[in-house]
Amino acid sequence: MSHNSFGHLFRVTTWGESHGPAIGGVVDGCPPRLPLTEADIQPWLDKRRPGQSKFTTQRQEPDQVRILSGVFEGVTTGTPISLVIENQDQRSRDYAAIAAQFRPGHADLTYELKYGIRDYRGGGRSSARETAMRVAAGAVARLVLGSAMRIRGALVQIGPHRIDRNRWDWAQVDENPFFCPDPVAAQTWETYLSEVRKSGSSAGAVIEVVAEGVPPGLGAPIYGKLDADLAGALMSINAVKGVEIGEGFAAAALSGEANADEMRMHDGLVEFDSNHAGGILGGISTGQPIVARFAVKPTSSILSPRHSVDRFGHDIEIVTKGRHDPCVGIRAVPVGEAMMACVLADHLLRHRAQNPDAPTTTRLPRN
């Protein structure tokens, strides 16, 4: 299986399966002399960790990360940083019944058709368990970006229920099990998702990730666009079926006048009156907050019987048992943040390599 790496100068490779002995990753290209310990990574993993509420899978994994290389006396050395997390709560027996069956909505069939073999225990490599290493890599990426850059994510929709943006409060994100910035919507979601969970079904979600303090100039024209790389990174997350930057698909309903982000000079800096573009123009960051959203489909593992086939060509009816998230989008919030961080760290290093003297603000070079 190829294509287990992403990034250019800041490059991340992950390995491991859902029910294997461990999962791990290698972060290559991290600059030297950055302070780094397990304690810098663990808080981000704790945000993604399963079993923290009744609205996520009850698999109990401490997700304790160990740094195996690339750090000496508490700082990075510039060599590859190897990370590992031991799997401790596998229940492979839950999947014995589907060893020769293909679950609708899962990657079972496509893995079988492509490789002729698959790890049916929790989906193996296709499991969302793999995303823990993305979160660990994202923690390293945040150190590369520095404290001036802030990346935050929030759930803005579960099923048909959206937040009221007039009630958006970042402080609320850590006060409920949904990463929800709207306390009223969080209460609605609790009732709604409790009913979904009891019925054995699942729900989809939309996550919004915002990066503030991003300098202008990240990204490159045509094939190195920042939004293209960001969209690809977010689209690579398990169960994601759509990505948009800024207004995204809603821009199609706007007029040219409404969609244009008008500019003015203020104290020698270029300032924008709006941010419909989501902080990126021509594939290059504008200095405004970068705003991206991604849609996560309903968890495919449900208790309702579904029609499918087995590997012997028989029509069957299948019920997926085991421990599953009624809304996998909840734990996708820290994963989206991590992928945003990794992409920005990669582009920041690429930008510095080509333009070491480039301005870090929107002050015009000739001004």
Characterize the structure shown.
By secondary structure, the protein is of the alpha+beta class. Helix content is 24%, strand content 22%. The chain has a five-stranded antiparallel sheet, with helices on one face. The protein has a five-stranded antiparallel sheet with strand order 9-8-10-16-11. A hairpin with a 5-residue loop joins strand 2 and strand 3 (22-28). Helix 1 (38-48) packs across helix 3, helix 1 packs across helix 7 and helix 3 crosses helix 7 (332-354). The longest helix is centred in the last third of the chain and has 23 residues, at 332-354. The protein is globular, with a radius of gyration of 21 Å.
Blueprint (SSEs and pairs):
Blueprint lengths: L4 E2 L4 E6 L5 E7 L9 H11 L16 E5 L1 E2 L2 E2 L4 E6 L21 H8 L15 H15 L4 E9 L2 E2 L20 H16 L6 E8 L13 H10 L4 E6 L10 H4 L3 E4 L2 E4 L7 E2 L2 E2 L4 E7 L9 E4 L5 E4 L13 H23 L13
Give a quick set of tags describing it.
7 helices, 24% helix, alpha+beta, single chain, 367 residues, 5-stranded antiparallel β-sheet, globular
Averaging pLDDT over every residue, what do you get? 93
Shape: globular
Query: How far apart lie the N and C ends?
Result: 52 Å
Secondary structural class: alpha+beta
DSSP strand count: 18
- Major beta sheet, specifics? 5 strands, antiparallel
In quaternary terms, these chains amount to single chain
Low-confidence parts lasting 5 or more residues at pLDDT below 50? none
Number of helices: 7
> Rg, please?
21 Å
Order of helices and strands: EEEHEEEEHHEEHEHEHEEEEEEEH
Strand percentage lies at 15-25%
